[in-house]
Each structure stands twice: as structure tokens, then as C-alpha cells.
UniProtKB/TrEMBL annotation:
UniProt-listed Enzyme Commission number(s): 1.3.1.72
Keywords for the protein's UniProt record, in alphabetical order: Cholesterol metabolism, Endoplasmic reticulum, FAD, Flavoprotein, Golgi apparatus, Lipid biosynthesis, Lipid metabolism, Membrane, NADP, Oxidoreductase, Peroxisome, Signal, Steroid metabolism, Sterol metabolism, Transmembrane, Transmembrane helix
Top enzyme class: oxidoreductase
UniProt KW Zinc keyword: no
Membrane topology per record: Single-pass membrane protein
BP GO terms, sorted: cholesterol metabolic process
Lineage of origin: Eukaryota, Metazoa, Ecdysozoa, Arthropoda, Hexapoda
Name assigned to this protein: Delta(24)-sterol reductase
Cofactor(s) it depends on: FAD
Length: 508
């Protein structure tokens, strides 16, 4: 990885040797984690399966919510000394950083992990906030239903995706995660429990997404579901310039009826592959590719092969498609297990991968952390599709990290943090990896990127590092409805502002 020598040389003697081992041979520790990760998954799997089969969760939900409300009342009775946040430990969350505020704030246990109810009639599923994407697809897909889109990493939670955001390849039709949610259940700062829909309380309904748990504690979410077909028919179209990528993407986005899924990976600024897909129930068995099987190559490497072989069509089982980037954590796994895509490794150990992000995070050493801080960028920038070419060129000048993840999404004109004048098409540009530009400076480069995105009327995803000032943050995100709600719900003492949770200072 980038500048490993510089980091190693910065400490002396014994420390330097230990640091060297931790950085260069991290895979040894990670391989030890693999069986633990698997065991952890299997236990969760069995637990959720039993609970779902027994249908015991719905009857217990009310008392679990009451327990959350009780903690809020206790906070108030103790004099509301420090603001509240959830007690979910930082190492379990899907971001690079640890939240410092968890150490000082009043933490509320929101231990709500179950799927509550599936209504084919209303076409919704009601879930508790700690339900994960892996859990949902494993439960819904075999029943013939699925979410309109599934943010791909198995361990992303519904609560995190509502309070932060989620985007995926059918977002060009369905919008962001908030746009497939129809109702929220929240415990507010006064300990009351409310059910909120677009009609019952539009102000609160539209201000929950992107509020990062600073308006109330989420205890249930009702999400739309759609019929699931067993396979996805995928078309891969290589492109040889940015101009061509732009043209092909727009052409495909003009066919929403034909394309359920639209995604692209750029492997350099002039080379990429645009992927489109539809759910289907019949396959051409000769073209079936079960990419989720343990011995299959990492998905992004598989996509890269179409640059050589030219356009292609194949069929992928639905759940394999939904979690296609899970096994390789997009492409971050290559920094962690460099030989992980070698067929020998895949056949022998692939069934245990991916290591769980939470366990990786829990066991990450200071040396690795420093290395990532200096030599790594993890950012998702949401920009209007018209700014696509300009943005890729800008990222190329600043960091030149490839592959780039490109995921178009529809942004309806609605009240809330992401205010746009009219329904618009945006694109998420995901930059994950080691910058190859020599003058990369984590803070200065990210600040330039943030300024570019803000000027382009874009938004930064908040699980990543933000170096914006409070004023810049308020300029990027419309706070008018949010401020109104914080004052109506008396959040001042109860919860910090979003900025205080996501700014670089609040994270370790
Ligand atoms: C009712 C029910 C509830 C569940 N609840 C939870 C839960 O609460 N928390 C939780 O973490 N898991 C839960 N799971 C399972 C979960 O979704 C995982 O995918 C599980 O770790 C895989 O176990 P498996 O036995 O299906 O093994 P396999 O499918 O063989 O998976 C082995 C490894 O591959 C990964 N993987 C699985 N499918 C794919 C795919 N299509 N593409 C890429 N990688 C893939 C897995 O994450 C796992 O690490 C639940 C499953 C069910 C049926
Ligand atoms: N494809 C995609 O869209 C991807 C999205 N992501 C990002 O990852 C994040 C989700 O990760 P995940 O680990 O699931 O979530 P986190 O635990 O990181 O939660 C994110 C925020 O939501 C708040 N929150 C979560 N649950 C509740 C609740 N029940 N009540 C009140 N507030 C809550 C948390 O508050 P608190 O600080 O109090 O705990 C936190 O501020 C999102 O920000 C998402 O944008 C990451 C990868 C892919
Ligand atoms: C909107 C979309 C699609 C976002 C995808 C974001 C992923 C690429 C991010 C989410 C969590 C994430 C930040 C993570 C890491 C890499 C990038 C990830 C997977 C890693 C695994 C890098 C190595 C680190 O030592 C550590 C284990 C702490 C983190 C954990 C979180």
C-alpha cells in the first residue's frame, strides 16, 4: 500500500518491527478472524431464524420500545445532563471511524434486532432498526419478496440507513433508502412513542432521514417490498472514454422500464464497464454465474475482465447480485488480504470470507489506523448527473483512485436535508482506496473535494470523514426543516446536532 515504508520508518527499534509486522502481515491476524467471523454470523443466523419461525418478535416489540422510552425518562429524571445517543458500540458500525461522543453522552440501549411483520397486502415489511441487509435478503428473497433496493454490505442496518442514507443500483428508479420507507416509529426526547408517516406528520417524516439520531430514537421502520424474481440478467458494456461512459449511462437511464439496475465501475478515467440488469425468473443455464459462491473471483475483478472480452450477458442469482460487493468489501479487501483473489486461497478459505467489518474494526491497530489515515481515502460524493464527467476528472486530478463506483439515483424534490428545486438525477461517485497522486493530503484534499461537491450542488455521505466547517456543512445540507423540528421536539439538550456527530473532531 502507498507509503508503507515512510510509516514504518517513522518509529524506531522494537516499535518499528512490531509496526512493520502489523502493517505488512495484517492478513495473518485477519485469517485468524475468519472462523470467528463465520461463527458470529452462524449464531446470528440461527438466532434470527428461530425468532422469525416462532414469530415471537412482534409480541415482544412493545415492551422493548417501552424499555427505550423508560431510559429516556430516566435521562430526564437525572437532570438531562448530557445529550443522548444509542449505546451501539462504534466498532459495530459501518464506517472507518469510532464515534468519540459515545464515551461522554448518555447512551440508550436500542437492542431491537428483529423482523416484525411482512404484509403482502400492503407490500411492506416492518422491522426493528438493528435488522441487517443480510438478514433481510435471507428472509425475504426465499419468500418471493425483496426490498426495491438492497445496500450491498450484509451488516448495514436499517436504522443506520434511515438515519444516514443508503444508495444502490435501482436507486435511479426508487431514490435513496429514505424513499422506500413509509413509516417510522420513534421515541422522542420527552419519552413519548410516535408513529410517523408522510400524512400523519410530514415535517417529522421528512426530517428523520440524514438526522443521524438527533431528533429521536428509531424503534421500527416500515419499508416497501417488491416481488422478487430468482435471477438478475446482467449486461456488461465496456466503455473506452469518459464521454462514452456518460453517453451509455444516460442512454440506459432513459430506459427505466427495461433496466432495474444501473451501475458502472471506472478502472481509469478512460476505461470502465457499465452494467445494467433486470430481475428474471428463467435463465439460460449456460450463462448462469453464481458469483456469491465461495470460490468465485471478486466481483470487481470479474467486471474488469469485460474490458478484454467485450460486451457480455450473464445470469446471477438475485441474492448473489444484491451482495455482489460484500465478499470483497467493494475492493477494500485487497489491502487486507492481498492474495485473497488467488484461486488457491478462494477454494481453500473463500467460504469463510468476508471477515466481518465489525471484527476487523475491533482488532484494528493504531499502526494500521495511521496508515489508512495518511494513505487512504474513503468517500462517497453525490453530485448531479450533469456534473458526472467534470467530477470524475476532478477526482482523477486530486486522488486518481480506481476502480471508482458509479451509482445513479433519483432525488425527488422533497422537504428535508437534501433540498433540490425539481426532481433530479444524481450520481454517487464512490472513491475507496490508495490515492496515487503524490500531493495527496487527507485533510487538504478532502476539503478541496468537499468545496467542489458543494459548489456542484452535491452532498457528501456522512459515514465518511467530513472536514467541513459548521457553516460549510449548513450550506451543503438544508437545515431549515431540521432546525424547526429540533425546536418543536425540544432536542437542544436531548441530542447533539448532526454536525457534532459527523465532523472530523467528533470521530477518532
Ligand atoms: C431468517 C434469517 C435471519 C438472518 N439473520 C441474520 C442476522 O441477524 N445477522 C447476520 O449477519 N446474518 C443473518 N442471516 C444470514 C446472513 O444474511 C448471512 O449471509 C450469513 O452470514 C450467511 O450464512 P449462510 O449460512 O447463508 O452461508 P453462505 O451463504 O455460504 O455464506 C458464507 C459467507 O458468504 C457471504 N455471503 C452470503 N451470501 C452471499 C452472496 N450472495 N454474495 C456474497 N457473499 C455472500 C456471507 O456473509 C458469509 O460470510 C440470516 C439469515 C436468515 C435466513
Ligand atoms: N450502499 C450504501 O448505501 C452504504 C451506506 N453506508 C453508510 O453506512 C451507515 C450505516 O451503517 P450502520 O452501521 O448500519 O449504522 P450506524 O450505527 O453507523 O448509524 C449511523 C447513524 O444512525 C444513527 N442511528 C442508528 N440507529 C438508530 C436508532 N435506532 N435510533 C436513532 N439513531 C440511530 C446512529 O446514531 P448513534 O450515533 O447515536 O449510534 C448514527 O449516528 C450509513 O451512514 C450509510 O450511509 C455504508 C456503506 C454502504
Ligand atoms: C455508499 C457505499 C456503497 C459505500 C461503501 C463504503 C465501503 C467501501 C466502506 C464502508 C465501511 C468501510 C469504511 C470500512 C473499511 C473499508 C471501506 C468500507 C468497507 C475498512 C474495512 C478498511 C480497513 C479498516 O482497518 C477498517 C477495518 C477499520 C474499515 C472498516 C470499515
Amino acid at each position: 500500500m502507498g507509503d508503507r515504508k515512510a510509516v514504518t520508518a517513522s518509529s524506531g527499534g522494537f516499535d518499528a518491527v512490531v509496526e512493520h509486522i502489523l502493517i505488512h502481515y495484517r492478513w495473518v491476524f485477519v485469517i485468524v478472524l475468519l472462523p470467528l467471523s463465520l461463527l458470529y454470523d452462524v449464531l446470528l443466523y440461527v438466532r434470527s431464524w428461530v425468532v422469525f419461525q416462532l414469530s415471537s418478535a412482534p409480541s415482544k416489540h412493545a415492551s422493548k420500545v417501552e424499555n427505550v422510552a423508560k431510559q429516556v425518562r430516566q435521562w430526564s429524571a437525572e437532570g438531562a445532563r448530557t445529550p443522548m445517543c444509542t449505546a451501539r458500540p462504534s466498532w459495530q458500525t459501518m464506517s472507518f471511524r469510532h464515534a468519540k461522543y459515545k464515551k461522554t453522552m448518555f447512551t440508550v440501549n436500542v437492542n431491537l434486532v428483529d423482523i416484525l411483520d411482512l404484509s403482502a397486502e400492503r407490500r411492506t415489511v416492518r422491522v426493528e432498526p438493528l435488522v441487517t441487509m443480510g438478514q433481510l435478503t435471507a428472509t425475504l428473497d426465499p419468500l418471493g419478496w425483496t426490498l426495491p433496493f438492497v445496500p450491498e454490505l450484509d451488516d448495514l442496518t436499517v436504522g443506520g440507513l434511515v438515519m444516514g442514507t443508503g444508495v444502490e443500483t435501482s436507486s435511479h428508479k426508487h431514490g435513496l433508502f429514505q424513499h422506500i420507507c413509509v413509516a417510522y416509529e420513534l421515541v422522542l426526547a420527552d419519552g413519548s412513542v410516535v408513529q410517523v408517516t408522510k400524512d400523519s406528520d410530514p415535517d417529522l417524516f421528512y426530517s428523520v432521514p440524514w438526522s443521524y439520531g438527533t431528533l429521536g430514537l428509531l424503534t421500527a421502520v416500515e419499508i416497501r417490498i417488491v416481488p422478487a424474481l430468482r435471477f438478475v440478467k446482467m449486461q456488461y458494456e465496456p466503455v473506452r472514454s469518459l464521454e462514452e461512459a456518460d453517453t451509455v449511462l444516460r442512454r440506459q437511464l432513459d430506459l427505466p422500464e427495461e433496466n432495474e439496475f444501473v451501475e458502472a465501475l471506472m478502472f481509469s478515467k478512460d476505461e470502465g464497464v457499465v452494467m445494467t440488469g433486470q430481475m428474471v425468473s428463467c435463465v439460460d443455464w449456460g450463462k448462469l454465474n453464481e458469483i456469491g459462491r465461495w470460490h468465485k473471483p471478486w466481483f470487481f475483478e470479474h467486471v474488469r475482465t469485460f474490458l478484454r472480452s467485450g460486451p457480455g450477458v450473464e445470469y446471477i442469482p438475485l441474492r448473489d447480485y444484491q451482495h455482489r460487493h460484500s465478499r470483497s468489501l467493494f475492493w477494500e479487501i485487497k489491502e487486507i488480504i492481498p492474495f485473497g483473489n488467488n484461486p488457491v486461497f478462494r477454494y481453500l478459505f473463500g467460504w469463510m470470507t468476508p471477515p466481518k467489518v465489525s471484527l476487523l474494526k475491533l482488532t484494528q491497530t493504531q499502526a494500521v489506523k495511521k496508515l489508512y489515515e495518511r494513505n487512504h481515502i474513503i468517500q462517497d460524493m453525490l453530485v448531479p448527473i450533469e456534473k458526472f464527467k467534470e467530477s470524475v476528472l476532478f477526482f482523477d486530478e486530486e486522488v486518481a483512485v480506481y476502480p471508482l463506483w458509479l451509482c445513479p439515483f433519483r432525488l425527488p424534490s422533497e422537504p428535508g436535508m437534501l433540498r433540490v428545486d425539481k426532481d433530479s438525477m444524481y450520481i454517487d461517485i464512490g472513491v475507496y482506496g490508495v490515492p496515487t497522486r503524490k500531493d495527496f493530503d487527507p485533510k487538504e484534499t478532502t476539503r478541496r473535494i468537499e468545496a467542489f461537491v458543494s459548489k456542484a450542488k452535491g452532498f457528501q455521505m456522512l459515514y465518511a470523514d467530513t472536514y467541513t466547517t459548521r457553516e460549510e456543512f449548513r450550506k451543503m445540507f438544508d437545515h431549515s426543516l431540521y432546525d424547526k423540528m429540533r425546536s418543536r421536539l425540544k432536542c437542544d439538550k436531548a441530542f447533539p446536532e448532526v454536525y457534532e456527530k459527523v465532523c472530523r473532531k467528533a470521530r477518532d
